[in-house]
């Protein structure tokens, strides 16, 4: 689909959701849940639309396979890509190679954070030990 077609679909869906919002349709207790559900669905559609605009088909396929294995990593990568697109740092569609580089950078950052969180316990040699008391029996 062309960018103009995607934009038109997005506008139509947003207008539809805005019309449904104020009227409601069920008991008062279900209104908030339905509106939240619609809002989440609209956000998911918007994310999907942005990602189709900024990702090559091969890169989108790889991201989909990553989502099957680890949902949180795919969401993190999507958030980063959307942030880069919104800030204007992406000039062209992201290729599979560029996506691999981004994945490598994210993995390296996570490794560094894990290394910083390690706690090292070193025991002194020749110190007192509870087992030494048992030898005197």
TrEMBL record:
Write one Gene Ontology MF term.
DNA binding
Compositionally skewed regions (Gly residues) per UniProt: 22-32
Alphabetized InterPro entries for the sequence: PDCD5-like, PDCD5-like_sf
Query: Would you say which domain of life the source belongs to?
Result: Eukaryota
- Region annotation Disordered: residue ranges? 1-46
Q: Which Pfam families match?
A: dsDNA_bind
Q: Which SUPFAM superfamilies match?
A: Double-stranded DNA-binding domain (SSF46950)
Q: Could you give one GO CC term from the UniProt record?
A: cytosol
Q: Which PANTHER family match?
A: PROGRAMMED CELL DEATH PROTEIN 5 (PTHR10840)
Recorded family membership? Belongs to the PDCD5 family.
> What is the protein's name according to its record?
DNA-binding TFAR19-related protein
The organism that produces this protein has a lineage beginning with: Eukaryota, Fungi, Dikarya, Ascomycota, Pezizomycotina
